[in-house]
Amino acid sequence: MEASRFAVAILAAGRGTRLKSKRAKVLHSIGGKPLLRHVVDAVLVSTPPERVFVVTGHQAEAVEAALAPTGVRFVRQTEQRGTGHAVQMLRPAVEGFSDLLVLSGDVPLIRPETIEAIRGFHVEQAAAMTILTARPENPFGYGRIFRTAPDRPDVAAIVEQKALRDEDLHAGEINSGIYAFRTVPLFANIGRLSPENAHAEYYLTDMAAILRAAGERVVALETADATEVLGANTIAEMMQLDAALRLNTAQRLMANGVTIFRPETCVIDAAVRVGADTVIEPFVQLLGDTEIGEDCRIRSYSVIQDSRLAAGVLVRNHCVLDHAAVGEGAMLGPFAHLRPQSEIGRGAHVGNFVETKKTRLGDGSKANHLAYLGDAAIGDGCNIGAGVITCNYDGAAKHPTQIGDGVFVGSNATLVAPVTLEKNSYVAAASCITDTVPEDALALGRARQTVKPGWAGERRKKLRKP
Ligand code: UD1
Ligand code: CA
Asked: Domains, the chain, ranges and CATH?
């Protein structure tokens, strides 16, 4: 027998009516990644992208754009007339392949190992159609598998929920929407599908009975873990899968030495890396391409997106980090806001209500309270006082602030950019700085205080009079 040559199809053309969303269902994210991307990534573990065909239709441009980096191919289904119709669209593309694996774009937790298992079983059973099945706690809404006999792999038919007879409503073995087909019998018989059903659609599921009637072998392979084939048809179902996925991620991190208190309250994306002995408190979000070193502590209510934290960083409560880099042993927060291109040096402190943007704060420098530091390059060992503001925007353009090593900026100073404070200079509190402060200089930029003795007492007396 010649070796099987598999193509893979992923059905993703449907609208997802039950989601009641403007966005195509397969583009909704769980675990920080679109449903469809989960399926594609699982498939690409064993199949080169030029053998993967994604059927698109509803919001096809957006769906195809989201997958562009993967190199998979696309087949358009301009009218969504059912899963059977979607597979009909694939016929020209998969010509020359002996077998076709079909997956659903909305069954996202499927594991590469299970994809391999159905492929292997299909070949071993020499079946025309192999159906991946499961027995979830609640089979409601899924198509059900009817075997020819309970202990046999052979399937007589798949019956959709709406077509179930009363006595079959509790049938427990569901169709996962994942199948392997031999292409010759599939396409020789697919023309027999008819849209005479509750949705007036061409159901791919009807191929089980059709192929069997044509004398072909149709078999089922049951997965041990039903959660990996659960579908995402509603927001509630999606959020259940999201929770399952994130708990997996948390467990993987904990297995690698990370302490996560109350992991069910944390939102951690699958790609996040965390070093051993780091502690994550409840209600923390770690998102996107985030990497956290060893021995860090991330306190509750902090949200860290696409950021890099070196070892030993303390992120106190309620910090927001977005595309930021933080050096070893730095301390942030509570309530620090590090916006994109913030670079915090080793051992630096960014305290409460300090916002940074496109700013480097050097090693050991401190901005402990109430500051805005934007478009600034700040050297090592600086002290940025409470309430210091870089005035980086003149209403039209952004301007840089340069601060050398060892500079002391007094509280409530405003630094009107572009401006330079040379190293070891000193800015007096409440100064408005518009010109260069030379090395080692003191700059004062404020009105002198005047004192009027007795003035307040006189005023009080006047006010007391009728
Ligand atoms: C389908 C199965 C059901 C199974 C369930 C598993 C059918 C008729 N039923 O039901 O037996 O238990 O999956 O999750 O197949 N799609 C297209 N073009 C279309 C219609 C759908 O590409 O014209 C795509 C959708 O985008 C989706 C997938 O096919 O990714 C499944 O479609 P969906 O409508 O969600 O089928 P279910 O009702 O869940
Ligand atoms: Ca579905």
From this structure: 3-229 (3.90.550.10), 235-443 (2.160.10.10)
